[in-house]
Amino acid sequence: MYPEDLVMPMKAELTDKGFQDLTTPEEVSSAIKKEGTTLVMVNSVCGCAAGAARPGVVFSLTGDKKPDHLVTVFAGYDGDAVAEARKYMAPFPPSSPSIALFKDGELVHMLERHHIEGNPAGAIAANLQAAYNEYC
């Protein structure tokens, strides 16, 4: 597990923008099963989370359409919550960071680490906005 003083500022990058920080499997299950659309960001300490995933997911929310619910779990810190989120992301393998969009509890769009790594935040945002336009 990563130290708290390292993780908390990275969590705050999302929670300060309206994301709910989920730390238990029960919170994850309840959030994903909510009616409407739920965006789940599996946050991480890696460079692609800092350089593309977190800025991209925040920028994606500037468009006209956006998910009803915004939640996040932190890989390497909130292990049980992350494991629960990944159950809902099957058949995709575990990936950190990753971003999933659910509609009425069903996975409808997924960005894995290999979609994030090496791409700028703007490309991540554009990909997510296209998904919002289709599902939100």
From TrEMBL:
Record InterPro entries: BrxB/BrxA (IPR009474)
Domain of life: Bacteria
Pfam family, one: Disulph_isomer
Family: Belongs to the bacilliredoxin family.
Protein name (Swiss-Prot/TrEMBL): BrxA/BrxB family bacilliredoxin
